[in-house]
Amino acid sequence: MHQELSKLSTVRTLPAWIRSLAEGDSRAFGKLIGALHTYHQAAIAPYWDHIQAQIEADRAVRGRALLDGGADALLSSLPPTMRWHAPVLEVDYPVDRDLHLDGRGLLLLPSFFCRRTPVTLQNPELTPVLVYPARHMSETAPVVPAAPRSLGKLVGHTRSAVLGSIGGGCTTSELARRVGVSAASASQHAGVLREAGLVLTLRNGSAVMHTLTPLGAALLRGGHRGQQRGARAQSSMPERSTPATM
C-alpha cells in the first residue's frame, strides 16, 4: 500500500490522512483497519453467504465452459463488457490501454462488487489479473432463514440425493441422470432446494447451472458427519452373545 500511495502522490495531491498512510504512519493504519472492520461487520458480513454463493455459481459456469469448449469457450462466456476475438480479449475500460501477457497467463477473478467495468491488476513480476463483474440474478436475492414449511419439503431420499448430486455444479439434465429421475422432476426438486436457500441456479445460454450455497454445502457436510458418527458408534458397540439353543 505504501508503494501504491507513493506512486499516486506523484500524479495528484493527496488528502492529509492519505499522506499519513503513504508515509507509513502506524496510527493512520490503525484507524483505517478499524474503519474497514466496522464497515465489514455492518455491510458485508450479514450478506456473506449470498456473496459467496454468487461467486461460486459464476465459477461453476466458467469452469463448465472451459471443460466443454476449452479456453475459447471460457473467454467467450465472460460478461458482455468483455469480448473475445482470438487472440485478443477486448475489455470495456475507462482508459485506452493494452496489456500484453507475454506468456504469463491471465488470472480471472469474478467480483461481486465490480458492477460496471472490469479492473486489471498488473505487476511485471506476477501473473496479470482481470477482475470482472460476477453475474447477478434478480431471483437470487440474499437468502433469508427458510420457514419450517420450506424445510419440511426437504424430507425424502430423492431430494437428499439431488442435494448431494449437485456437488460442484451441474445442469438440470446432468442432475436428472445422476439421480435417475426425469428432467422435470430434477428441476422441481432443485426449485424446492433453491426456495430453501440450499441451491443457487444461474442460466448459462440455453441451460441452467445448479450449485450449492454455503448453507446447502454445510447441511450436506453435517449429514455426512452424522452418518460417520453413527457408523463409528455402531461399530464400537460390543457384540451381543447369542443365546445357546437347545
Automatic annotation (TrEMBL):
A Pfam family annotated for this UniProt entry: HTH_20
A GO MF label: DNA-binding transcription factor activity
Keyword vocabulary terms for this entry: DNA-binding, Transcription, Transcription regulation
Domain HTH arsR-type: 149-220
InterPro entries from the UniProt entry: ArsR-like_HTH, HTH_ArsR_DNA-bd_dom, Metal_resp_trans_reg, WH-like_DNA-bd_sf, WH_DNA-bd_sf
Residue stretches of biased makeup (Polar residues): 235-246
Name of the protein this chain belongs to: DNA-binding transcriptional ArsR family regulator
